[in-house]
AcrR family transcriptional regulator
Amino acid sequence: MTTRTASRPRERLIAAAKELTYSQGVGVGVDAILKEANVARRSLYEHFGGKDGLIAEVLRVTTAEDEELFRTTMRAAGDDPRVRLLSIFDMLAEVIETPDFRGCRYLSADLALTDPDHPAHRITREYRERVHELLEEELVKAGHQQPASAADQLMLLIDGTLAAGVTKPHTDPARLARQLADQVIGPRRS
């Protein structure tokens, strides 16, 4: 028996929606998700109340994973806050090079979901706020004079890197963004 058929319907729905909403966008049909998950439509409504609830849960799961990826990347870079911040762009370069890279899941969802009250928007906004706080904390440690503003700039560079990574894949956007991030962070403080 495979893991896919052995897991429970809720987990199979999340796994299928995670894969399909990334590869095809949040507009992917419910039938495709149900087929990939090998579950009945009733399971979708029992566990998530519908497709919107499933999308929101997928975003909750992936934002937690991606936030941890930022933290892990920065921890692995050592103790220097400057190096830790720049390591994010090295990680993004690796992400962009993966064969299944399709851009930023959160930017795609925000653009595709036109209802401003869709629960996905709150989840992506809160995720960006947490990443911003993480960046700002490092900038404070680095002695930056305007850490909140610099964190805004780094967030823009991260979003731009992911967008350019899918729309202009051979332009090495992570390297270019890293150079700009180096300027935003500023010189090493003694």
